[in-house]
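can u do me a favor
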């Protein structure tokens, strides 16, 4: 199986998971963040402007579309990162400055270009047992998938 087919397979599995993801795309001068399921529509096409292969994941009414330029994806990493969040302890209604730290595990699918720069990150928004198990399987079988450069 070619690495391109494997990246297509990863995207297909993300789509079929029906899980919610926080989608983060950083571009020159702008950052896009949104939370959505990546589907139910999935289709492949070729850009008429560039000739590059695209995979589109879209909502049913296509008011939300996420296009991935498959030929530019050279690696996919599945990363677990612990994020500390400060939680205000407000049991008595007074802000007495007492805070606690909460730890949240972020489960991130990172799509990287051939230079190792981020194309996009898909942060798993669900932390339930089925989502955690799905992410662990993806990490075990697909982490670090690379194309020949």
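np, heres the sequence
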């Amino acid at each position: 199986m070619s690495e391109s087919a494997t990246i297509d397979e990863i995207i297909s599995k993300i789509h079929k998971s029906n899980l919610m993801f926080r989608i983060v795309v950083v571009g020159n001068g702008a950052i896009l963040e949104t939370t959505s399921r990546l589907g139910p529509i999935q289709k492949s096409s070729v850009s008429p402007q560039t000739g590059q292969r695209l995979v589109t994941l879209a909502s049913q009414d296509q008011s939300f579309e996420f296009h991935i330029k498959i030929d530019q994806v050279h690696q996919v990493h599945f990363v677990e990162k612990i994020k500390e969040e400060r939680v205000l302890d407000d049991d008595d209604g007074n802000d007495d400055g007492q805070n606690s730290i909460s730890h949240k595990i972020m489960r991130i699918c990172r799509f990287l270009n051939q230079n190792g720069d981020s194309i996009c990150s898909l942060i798993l928004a669900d932390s339930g047992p089925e989502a955690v198990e799905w992410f662990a399987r993806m990490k075990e079988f697909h982490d670090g998938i690379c194309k020949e450069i």
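Residues 3-17 form the longest helix (15 residues). hope that helps!!
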